[in-house]
Design goal:
This protein has a domain at about 5-175 and about 215-245 and about 280-295: NAD(P)-binding Rossmann-like Domain (Rossmann fold, 3-Layer(aba) Sandwich). The chain is about 40% helix and about 15% strand. The protein has helices spanning about 15-25, 60-65, 80-85, 90-110, 145-160, 190-195, 215-230, 250-260, 285-290, 300-310, and strands at about 5-10, 30-35, 50-55, 70-75, 115-120, 165-170, 175, 205, 210, 215, 235-240, 245-250, 265-270. Bound molecules: nicotinamide-adenine-dinucleotide. Nicotinamide-adenine-dinucleotide binds next to helix 1, strand 2, helix 4 and strand 5.
C-alpha cells in the first residue's frame, strides 16, 4: 500500500484527476470537499475506493479530521475565478486564506510530511518580462491572485516556523476533461469547447492576441506526484508548472476548430478587469528540483480533450 494522502477540493477538476493518479499508484486517498464548485460526478467512478469527507476546509474540526493519519496533502480547494473574486472578494478569501490557514494548522498538528499547494500563475500579474520566473516579484491584479499569493506566504511561513514542509506549485492555465463549462466563471477552454461543439462562435474579451501557457491537466498531476516524492525539504518555495510555451486566444480557437472540424470565427469585445495580457512559464526550477518535463504539449492536449468530451 502507498502513502495515505489527502486531496482537498478532490471533487473539482484538477483534484479529481489527482485522485485518479494517486489511486493508480496504490495510495490510500481521502478527499475533503464542500461541493461549492466541484461535483460528486467527478468522483462517481471511484467513490468505492476513496474516503470522502464532505465539509469545508475552513472548519477547524473538518480540517483536523481530514488530516488525521495522512502523510501528504494536495491542497486544491479554492474558488478559482478571477471575475468571481472581483465581484465577491470575501468568498474568495474565505475559501482561500481562511481555509488554507486552517488546513496548514491541522497539517502541522497532525504531523503531515508535506503539503503540495495549488498556487497560481496569476501571482505574476502583468509585470514586464516573459517567461515568468519564480525570482520575479509578484504583482497580483485581482483579489483571486492576491488570495493565491497570500496562501503561498502562509505555506512558506508554516515551513519555517512549524516544521511543515510544503511547496507552492504555480499552475499556468490548466485545461482538460471535467473542467466545468457551465458556470458563469468557466475557464476559457472549457467554455469555448462547449460553445463551438454547439456550432456557436466563442466570444473573446480583447483582440485575442493575449497569450497563455495552456497546460494539459496530465502535466500538473505529474508535477504534484513528483513534488510528493522529492527527498529533501522544499521549504514552501514556489515552483512554476506549465509547458513553457504560449498560445494566443486566436490560436486556441484555431486549434479547437481543427480538433472539432469546425470553422467558427470568434466575436470580440472589450478586455476584462483583472485579466493579464500575457503569461508564460519558465519551467527550469521545476525541471531542476522535481525532474519535471511536460508530458502532453498544448496541441495534443486539445486533441485529447476534444476526444474525451463528446457532446
Ligand atoms: N484551473 C486552473 O487553470 C488553475 C490555475 C492556477 C491555479 N489553480 C488552482 O488549482 C486548484 C483547483 O482548481 P480547479 O480548476 O480544479 O477548480 P475546481 O473549482 O474544479 O475545484 C476546486 C474544488 O475545491 C472545492 N472547494 C472550494 N472551497 C472549498 C472549501 N472551503 N472546503 C472544501 N472544498 C472546497 C470545490 O467544491 C471544488 O471541488 C484551485 O486552488 C485553483 O486556484 C487552477
Amino acid at each position: 500500500m502507498g502513502n495515505a494522502v489527502l486531496v482537498t477540493g478532490g471533487a473539482g477538476f484538477i483534484g479529481s484527476h489527482l485522485v485518479d493518479a494517486l489511486l493508480a499508484q496504490g495510495h490510500a486517498v481521502r478527499v475533503v470537499d464542500n461541493f461549492s464548485t466541484g461535483s460528486r460526478d467527478n468522483l462517481a467512478h471511484c467513490l468505492a475506493r476513496i474516503s470522502l469527507l464532505e465539509g469545508d476546509v475552513g472548519d477547524p474540526d473538518i480540517a483536523l479530521a481530514a488530516c488525521r493519519d495522512v502523510e501528504y496533502v494536495f491542497h486544491q480547494a479554492a474558488i478559482p475565478s478571477v471575475p468571481r473574486s472581483v465581484k465577491d472578494p470575501f468568498s474568495t478569501q474565505r475559501a482561500g486564506e481562511i481555509a488554507t490557514l486552517r488546513l496548514l494548522d491541522a497539517c502541522a498538528a497532525q504531523g503531515v510530511k508535506r503539503i503540495m499547494y495549488a498556487a497560481s500563475s496569476s501571482a505574476y500579474g502583468d509585470a514586464p518580462g516573459l517567461p515568468r520566473a519564480e525570482t520575479m516579484p509578484p504583482a497580483p491584479m485581482s483579489p483571486y491572485a492576491a488570495s493565491k499569493l497570500a496562501c503561498e506566504y502562509y505555506v512558506r511561513a508554516y515551513a519555517h516556523c512549524r516544521g511543515l514542509d510544503g511547496v507552492c506549485l504555480r499552475y499556468f492555465n490548466i485545461f482538460g476533461p471535467r473542467q466545468d463549462p457551465d458556470s458563469p466563471y468557466s475557464a476559457v477552454i472549457a467554455l469555448f469547447l462547449k460553445l463551438m461543439r454547439q456550432g456557436q462562435a466563442p466570444h473573446i474579451h480583447g483582440d485575442g492576441e493575449q497569450t497563455r501557457d495552456f497546460t494539459y491537466v496530465v502535466n500538473v498531476v505529474h508535477a504534484n506526484l513528483l513534488a510528493m516524492r522529492v527527498r529533501g525539504p522544499l521549504n514552501g518555495q514556489a515552483i512554476n508548472v506549465g509547458c513553457g510555451e504560449r498560445s494566443s486566444l486566436n490560436a486556441l480557437v484555431a486549434a479547437l476548430n481543427d480538433a472539432l472540424g469546425t470553422s467558427l470565427t470568434p466575436t470580440y469585445g472589450p478586455p476584462r478587469a483583472g485579466d493579464v495580457a500575457h503569461s508564460l512559464a519558465d519551467i527550469s526550477r521545476a525541471r531542476e528540483l522535481l525532474g519535471y518535463v511536460p508530458r502532453v504539449p498544448f496541441p495534443e492536449g486539445i486533441r485529447r480533450l476534444a476526444a474525451a468530451c463528446p457532446i
